[in-house]
Amino acid sequence: MVLTTISAVLFLVVFLADLFGFHTNPYIGIIFFLVLPGLFVIGLALIPIGTWVERRRRAAGRAPSAAHWPRIDLNDPAHRRTAVAIFALTMVNIVIVSLASYRGIEYMDSVQFCGQVCHTVMQPEFVAHQQGAHAPVKCVECHEERGATSFAKAKMAGTRRLVAVVANSYPRPIRPSGDEHVAAREACGHCHSPGEFHGDRSRRIVEYANDEKNTETATTLKVHVGGGDGRGNAVGIHWHANSGTVVEFVAAEADQQTIPYVRATGRDGVVREFYAEKVTPEAVQGSRHRMDCLDCHNRPSHQIASTPERAVDAAIAAGAIPKTLPFIRRESVAVLKATYASQDEASQEISRMLGNFYQAGRQASAAEVSQAIRGVQDIARRNVFPAMNVGFGTYLSNIGHTDSNGCFRCHDDSHTAKDGKKIGQDCELCHSIE
Ligand code: HEC
Ligand code: HEC
Ligand code: HEC
Ligand code: HEC
Ligand code: HEC
Asked: Does the pLDDT at position 2 exceed 60?
């Protein structure tokens, strides 16, 4: 009773505090929303167990015996008061247990719980998630299917991973593998629908040279994302993901990078089987997988830059690193290419090396140099996680074809069907280039 009472009072205090917005630390969250309610329930369970043990003790004659069950007489005011008190306390307990389960589940579904409790392990994914378009979308929206069974399954899988963290046996880096880790494939459809995109999407890709002036060149792509045809179907790139389109493929390896076989029903209604060069039908093994959003958007939430060059170019284009600083592109890329033992070391070394470079008699304003240092440190903080062996290029996106094979896993002009049709690589099929 003492355990139950203390944890109940603490829980209620914390619950109210939380309601008014005083809760910031993920570890405190575990104590407040999982451990305290746990103690409360253990306390509750101990009450009948205690009564039972006591009765056995008495029955065995080790304590003064109370041979009979108490006789309850509601005409007796003392009995009445006790009955009312027990009823009221039970109601309070029910309220506490429901509040605690509600808050506990909500807490276990929070970005803070998924992203920050096992700090080092989830840091790359958490940091990247915070930077992207999906920052307001909870991890569980993509990583857990809906419904109570899926919730239970996901939390069981989480418990196994907790064991791996405690035993220090988790892989570094973590690879998306096996069905548990794959984001819920239908999740995207809760918020996006392929038939509702609008025409071309304009992308301006800016690059800088390694010369003193950091000379800029820009490419503008009009990516044919595709617009709806008015019947919920997309034309253009999102054609693959229409509910009526069936593109299936077999991937040779677990990472889906080599695709020897594709089967698709074309717009003309003809089913075609495309084989990669030198692949015979007998050589294709493994099950067919129907193409969906994740086969292109495999990094919708955790974009870690593929190369230091890309990250630096994006930062210069965004003004985070001043373009006017001589050789800043070359120098930033050089410091980011070095290997570091920890994020702290990376931060210090970036500051030291860039500082030294611009001190050596070059004309550079101190304010610009420190802005550049901050910009490059920020790139390292978002892309380099030595504790998890995660860095530039660890996780490649399948959108595009310059950093990974991406679209060219199929669109390589060599996947050929019996009637001679190929999955085309014509540059204008997917985008126009200006
Ligand atoms: C918009 C959807 C989305 C959100 C939100 C999201 N993820 Fe992911 N996550 C994915 C996808 C997609 C993959 C890659 C799955 C694949 O390739 O099979 C992935 C992969 C992962 C992986 C495997 C390692 C890796 O980097 O590939 C981890 C760990 C992970 N996510 C954790 C998280 C955490 C923690 C959060 C919240 C802070 C989160 N995710 C939020 C979609 C999402
Ligand atoms: C809970 C809702 C939700 C879910 C689930 C969701 N998204 Fe999004 N998505 C958004 C929002 C909100 C944006 C931001 C729109 C904006 O900023 O214009 C977005 C933006 C995007 C963008 C454009 C972002 C960019 O960087 O250009 C892509 C691509 C995308 N989502 C793909 C996916 C994929 C793939 C999945 C499934 C793994 C998914 N989304 C799941 C809500 C969601
Ligand atoms: C064949 C590959 C492919 C498939 C499959 C695919 N997408 Fe895309 N999607 C793209 C490409 C390419 C872009 C343009 C990306 C860019 O320019 O950055 C894009 C853009 C988007 C955008 C941003 C649109 C805009 O106008 O800014 C969203 C949102 C999106 N996709 C969601 C989805 C969802 C949801 C699915 C599954 C129903 C899906 N995609 C399936 C390739 C694909
Ligand atoms: C798993 C294989 C596969 C991958 C990966 C793939 N495609 Fe396709 N794509 C196909 C097939 C098959 C067709 C239909 C070919 C045909 O019948 O002419 C197609 C057709 C297209 C079309 C024409 C659609 C239309 O309206 O007729 C576009 C555009 C396209 N793909 C863009 C992309 C882009 C962009 C990517 C990468 C983000 C990509 N594809 C990745 C298999 C793939
Ligand atoms: C199957 C579709 C497809 C075909 C065919 C294709 N591309 Fe692309 N390409 C893409 C997509 C998707 C992107 C990424 C757009 C983005 O990042 O938003 C891209 C990106 C690019 C980029 C920008 C790379 C960067 O630095 O980010 C260039 C340049 C480019 N393509 C050139 C070409 C040329 C040249 C051809 C003809 C040989 C070609 N593409 C054929 C889909 C295609």
From this structure: yes
